[in-house]
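Archive transcription. Copying these from loose printouts into the bound notebook so they stop getting lost. Printout 1 of 2:
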Amino acid sequence: MKRIYVYKKFNRFWHWSQSALIFFLALTGFEIHDSIHLFGFEKAVELHRNASFILLALIAMAIFWHITTGEWKQYIPTLSKLKAQIHYYTVGMFKNEPHPTLKSIRNKLNPLQAVVYLGFKLVMAPMIILSGLLYLYYKILDANNIVIVSDIPLDVIAAIHTLGAYLIMAFAVVHVYMTTTGHSLTANIKAMLTGWEEVDDDHPDLYREDENSNSKTK
């Protein structure tokens, strides 16, 4: 086994910060819905609002990073090996079958992950962000006769926001489970902490690194 540097510093910072904020927003959201009692209702609302603004700033930074580095290409969906990937997660990995795709510097996500993560970024995240902003500024927008607000009851916006929150929490739970499907239970988590992914000695990215190092010495 050798190691390749897959996850850059900002990639790891963005991933763990976003995860912490999502779980904290879920925690304060549950208190706002009176499901748990930790901070008190008013404090929970304040913390939920502040954490949401921090998350929005983080998302803006992440979007800029993805665009300027070309990392957005990681989320382009493909049908290549998608069926094989689904088979692996549902059947193959329980029979110790080999993984159908190799994680690499250029392809950090397998075909199924790319589809799911794209859905997260294009559907779930906008759903909860837009509904949250509408809920937060509903009175101001409604007072100014903004049509999109006047035509949507506040309880409908709240229901959409709650639905989006449950979808993201379901995504997070599945995501945590999927981290255990590497060559060891903690391999994927270690990779996201350190940036270094352990791969087989014949992994193609190892040869790419050798070629790059050779070209630099010429």
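Printout 2 of 2:
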Amino acid sequence: MSLESVRAFFAEKAPDISVIESTKSSATVALAAEAYGVEPGRIAKTLSLRVGDRVVLIVTSGTSRMDNRKVKALFGVKPKMLGLHEVADITGHEVGGVCPFGLRTPLPIYCDVSLKAFDIVVPAAGSTHSAVRITPERMAQLTSAEWVDVCDRPQEDTSAYSSSSGLGGAG
């Protein structure tokens, strides 16, 4: 169902963008990079956070790590990652396929400036086997996202970013 909501989102708002599917899982940054033939930094991972009584999505470069101090400074409270079931219930997307497109519930979306290092990024598209190729600027425009600086600078060793929690993967 989630993949269909993403397809419907693009059919309505950006019919020139096609959802691409892979036979390989793209549930983590490392898997997504391999599945779509890009470096891990180009994978746009979507973090689902509770900040106070709000839920927000923050889209970052796959090799960036969220800086809790920066997020707290932005929102005024310490962020908490949503639980696995909360993610699916609120976004309509399964963990590993979370993206800012075709959401079940309208949510505030923030794009981290780490994405601006790339001309094209590859966010998930609602499932662990789907994605889109899009410019960071167009993604922000289509989702009415606000640009923020809430991540540490990318590290050289990208293997540490393959989301052991399952929440930071490709989406």
